[in-house]
Write a structure and sequence with these properties.
two-stranded antiparallel ribbon, single chain, three-stranded antiparallel β-sheet, alpha+beta, about 10% strand
Length: about 150
Amino acid sequence: MKPIRTGPDEYRAENFPEYNALFWLWTLGAFECLRTMGQHKDCFEAPLQDKLKEMKNKVALLRVPFAKQELKGEKTFQKPTEFYDENSVTGVETGYVFTIGGKRIDSEVLMDEVISFFENIKQTDILQPMPVAQRPRANHAAPPHPTG
């Protein structure tokens, strides 16, 4: 990915669209992976379950406001000025920096933590495969012919 910050006060505007698209892909994708694993936490050793919950909550702080238009854990805004939308970016360092619910979140630092979390899962942390839902079988019988 091309950097969006190329110097102390220098930014490459043409790199923002790619960065923005990849940022959301990573944020939403990481949350969905963590959420799915959390739904099947019994497949993992207890220490990994704890780390999983912690990581999912960290990513949710960024993902929830954008996906649900509310702060994590709040059904209505207490202080709507704390969050609007993508315009809530409060800075650009190695990635976007957000201040959401009074917490500073550097998107690139957060994604580095997510990558590290996944890279540090050991085979021994996995107790069993996650279950796979079986899709209902489609009825492949041909419909009756209209003439007969």
